[in-house]
Input
Amino acid sequence: MEKRRKGEMRRKRKVSYICLLLLALLQITTPSSAQNITSTTTSTTSALNPAALSYRTRPADVTVAVGEPAVFRCGVPEGSPNITFTFYGSHGNYILSCPDGHVEDIPQALYGSCDMKEGESLAVWTLKGTSFSDNSTRVVCQQSKNPDAPAAVLHVYDNGTSYATLIGCTIGGFFGMLLVAGLSYTLLQRSETLQKCFRGKETEDDMTTIVTKD
Output
């Protein structure tokens, strides 16, 4: 009987030792697996961040002749953080937020819009008609949580159209004055009332002269 009891006690001890070993192994492997999952998630996030925080369309400098429209664009991948496209010009400073499409009150010559095209969130500023005062207008695109803020500048040049317009206006004004003078002279010749007004003094002078002679 004693031998059987001793044998059972040894078996129980072995079982308890085995259980303890299994628990120890579980405690060792569990943190390492958790660390692997965490590191995998972190690496995945870090791999996605550079792509998300990037620009698919960067603003580019625009050169146009005076009177022509100017268009600036800035685009980021779809699903990226919002972008703000700021316009600094002679019309004032205005902010366009995309993809919400929120834009402040702007003059009629300026138009801001947001568009989603081919997996790209696009912000667009359109200056419908440029003038010399718009020269050096600047736009800045800023993506949320991205320190990179690309910018572009507008250059307006004269292609000779303004001088031609000025010369045309001058010539037109000169001939307009001649036309008005000619019409006035014609009306004066045909109007008896006006002729009497201008000849009234001459008749009185003649009458005075006649009386004096008598």
Summary: The beta strands are 62-65, 70-77, 83-89, 92-98, 102-103, 110-117, 120-127, 138-143, 151-157.
